[in-house]
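Moderator note: this is an archived Q&A kept for reference. The question asked for a predicted structure of one protein chain; the sequence and the answer are reproduced below.
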Amino acid sequence: MQRAWQGWTASQRHVVLASYLGWALDAFDYFLLVFVIKDVAGEFATSITSVSLAVMLTLGLRPLGAFVFGRLADRYGRRPILMLDVALYSLFGFATAFAPNLTVFLAIRALFGVAMGGEWGIGASLTMETVPPHARGFVSGILQSGYPSGYLLASIAFALLYPMIGWRGLFMVGILPSLLIFYIRSKVPESPAFKKEYAASVTTLGVLARHWKLALYAILLMTAFNFFSHGTQDLYPTFLLKQRHLGHGTVGTIAIVYNIGAILGGLAFSSLSQLFGRRRAIVAAALLAIPAIWLWAFSPTAVMLGLGAFLVQFCVQGAWGVIPAHLNELSPPEARGAFPGTVYQLGNFIASSNLTLQTWYAAQHGNDFSIPQAFVAAAAGLVIVLLVWFGREAKDADMASNAPAVRATS
C-alpha cells in the first residue's frame, strides 16, 4: 500500500504547508485571548464573564466570514482569497493590542471573528482538492493539527513573553502571521478543481437549499464538535489560574503539554481514518475521551491535571483531525470553497455561547469551573458518537474536479 507522503509534487507540499500555517497562525491569534481574559478584565475594570463575550463574538461571527470568504473563493479562486483572509485576521489581531476600552475591544474581536471564519474552509478545500486521494486522511490530520499548533504557540508566547510584554504586547505579536502572504504568493498554486467560468454560475445559497438535509446534518455535527473542542479548551487556562491557583508558568507548561497531545491525536486518528473509515475513527476518539474527563477536570495535583489534559486533547483533537477530509468529501463539489467552512462555522455560532455559559455557571457556584467543563465535554462526546455512527461517509470521493462526489455510504 502506498504511504500517505509518497508521490507528492512540490506544489502539493507547498499547498499543505501554507494551509496548515494559515490555520495555525489564525488559531494563535485566537487563543492568545484565552490566556489573558483575567488581565483584560482587570484592565477594563469589568468581570471575566463580560470579557468572555469577546470569545462569543469571535465564534459567533465566524459563519459570516466562512460564507463571505468561501463564496469569494468559489468565485475568484482559493489562493487570492486565502491571502486576503490572512492579511485581515493578522491586522485585527494586531489592532486588539490598542483597544482603549471594553467596547472597542469587543468590536475588534468581532471583526477578527469574521476574518478567522474564512480561513479554515478555504485552506481545507484548497488542500483536499490538491493532494493525492490516498493522502487525505494523513493530510486532514496535518491541516487540523494547525489549530492545536496555534494554541501551542500561544501557550509558549504566554509562558515566555507575558512577563515581559503583558497582554497588549502578546496581541502585537499577532501581526507576524501576515508574513505568510508572501509564501502563498510565491509558492502556492491555485486549486486544480477551481473553474472560474463554472463557479460564476453557482450560488452557495442555492447549493445549500438543494442539499438542505446534508447541510442540516453537518451543522448539527459541527455544533457538537465545537462544544467538544471549545468546551475543553477555552476555559481551561482560567480554571487553572483562578480555581487551582497555579502560576502563569505552570499554566503555560500544562497548555504546551496538552497541545502536544492534541497534535499527536489529530495525526494518529486521521491516519487511522484512511485505513478504517472516517466514521469509525471519529467514534473511537470521542469514546476514548470520556473516561479521561475526570482526570482532566478533578485531579488534585498539577501533574495529574496535565496528564488528564494531554489525554483529553489527544482524543478531542483526534476526532477533529478527521473533519477536514470528512466534511470536504461530503460537500457538494460546486461549492466546496464555501460549504465546509459555512456549516463548520454555523456549528461554531451555535456553540459560541459555551464560554459565557460555563463562566456564568461557575460564578453562581463559587467559581467552580470543573463541573461545567466536565458536563460539556461528556455530553458533546456522546452526541458526536451518535451523529457520526448513524451519519454518512464519502471516503475517497473525487475531489480533483467539479464532478459529482461518490455516493455516500451509511
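Archived answer notes: Residues 11-175+209-389 form a domain with the Growth Hormone; Chain: A; fold (CATH 1.20.1250.20).
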